[in-house]
Specification:
heterodimer; A: mainly alpha; B: alpha+beta; Butyryl-Coa Dehydrogenase, subunit A, domain 1; Butyryl-CoA Dehydrogenase, subunit A, domain 2; Butyryl-CoA Dehydrogenase, subunit A, domain 3; seven-stranded mixed β-sheet; two-stranded antiparallel ribbon; about 20% strand
Chain lengths: ~35, ~325
């Protein structure tokens, strides 16, 4: 649902940013994959 | 300190902001992502016409002579659009790594960057890419790519010497493996098997590290812009959506969350400014970005970039 409204796109971008440039919280990364 | 923008900086911010508002709504972005190249070539041309690749080029070479703050302004304005084209890579790193060569600067949108290798994490010293007799061999990963890319600037070792090489992506022995990242941006792995490579004079490991530092600062600014856009969108939703006869924003718990998120965004913006201030000291800048900005300051504190999206998503239900 969040993706339909658009805020999910920002969430995906910011978590990808974290993966590229630093550490991302394992649990958050996992939740993002499940909700993607 | 005076953080107000000059007239030129405000103009730059307005131009980029207007482009993002007109051409990069989230729905438009979705349609660009669905195309085979992972972005829209027409929009990429319009973006190139804005002249952003000139921002970081010295005035004597026909550029605008901007500094890290100017890159930050552009980045923050691009953030709300989550632009798919590698604008910041071209604007900061390609310009810095061109070694003053006009043929590269004039056509910088046709270049991608091959600086990372698998298993090396963030280290920029090439481990498996080597040059012998003017031919390059090795594989680079996470190259930000667009449909316009015909050449790559690739770091490689020639004996113990680290240098940067200009390599054609269409030459025999060059293979490009395209893939989108999780957020949809097109990236690629570049494989070279004895491809002719031309060394860029005056660019070594120190110059590559400095250019990547500039790029990181600019990308942090894009992320600040994206965080602000996500927060604004969430604020608007909470004031419109009603539950139990009241807008969601009337509930104290959600007000607390909005305040917390707002503070995190302001904190990230301050860190972005501080990092831009340290742009000429890559080691200090990296310390700012990696340790203070992203990693938790205590066991309970989560990185800002993980906290904002999950808090926003929680608010949307």
């Amino acid at each position: 649902m969040t993706q339909d409204y658009g805020v999910g796109a920002y969430a995906k971008y910011l978590l990808t940013f974290n993966l590229l440039h630093g550490d991302v919280d394992y649990h958050t990364g996992r939740v993002m994959r499940l909700s993607a | 300190m005076d953080f107000s923008l000059s007239d030129e900086q405000r103009m730059l911010q307005d131009t980029v902001g207007k482009f993002v508002a007109d051409r990069y709504s989230l729905d438009q972005r979705k349609s660009y992502m669905a195309q085979s190249a992972g972005h829209d070539a027409g929009v990429a041309n319009e973006l190139a016409d804005l002249g952003l690749n000139l921002v970081q080029i010295a005035e004597e070479q026909g550029g605008l002579g901007g500094d890290a703050f100017d890159a930050m302004i552009v980045g923050e304005a691009l953030g709300p659009g989550l632009v798919l084209e590698p604008v910041m890579d071209v604007m900061t790193a390609v310009s810095a790594l061109a070694g003053g060569r006009e043929d590269i600067l004039e056509d910088s949108n046709a270049y991608t960057l091959g600086l990372y290798e698998r298993g090396q994490r963030y280290a920029l010293t090439p481990a498996g890419t080597t040059v012998a007799d003017g031919k390059i061999t090795g594989t680079k990963t996470l190259a930000p790519i667009s449909a316009a890319a015909t050449h790559a600037l690739v770091s490689a070792k020639d004996g113990d010497d680290v240098g940067l090489y200009r390599v054609s992506l269409t030459a025999d022995g060059a293979t490009v493996f395209n893939y989108p990242l999780q957020d949809g941006r097109p990236f690629a792995d570049l494989q070279f098997d004895g491809v002719a490579a031309e060394r860029i004079d005056g660019v070594g490991l120190a110059e590559i590290e400095a250019a990547v530092a500039r790029l990181t600062i600019a990308e942090c600014a894009v992320a600040v812009g994206a965080m602000q856009a996500a927060l604004d969108m969430t604020k608007e939703y909470l004031s419109v959506r009603k539950q139990f006869g009241r807008p969601l924003a009337a509930f104290q718990e959600l007000q607390f969350r909005l305040v917390d998120m707002n503070m995190e965004v302001q904190d990230a913006r301050s860190m972005s400014i501080w990092a831009a201030n340290q742009a000429n000291q890559p080691a200090v800048m990296r310390c700012c970005v990696r340790r203070h900005w992203q990693k938790p300051r205590s066991a309970k504190r989560r990185p800002m970039f993980a906290k904002i999206p999950s808090s926003c998503m929680a608010a949307w239900g």
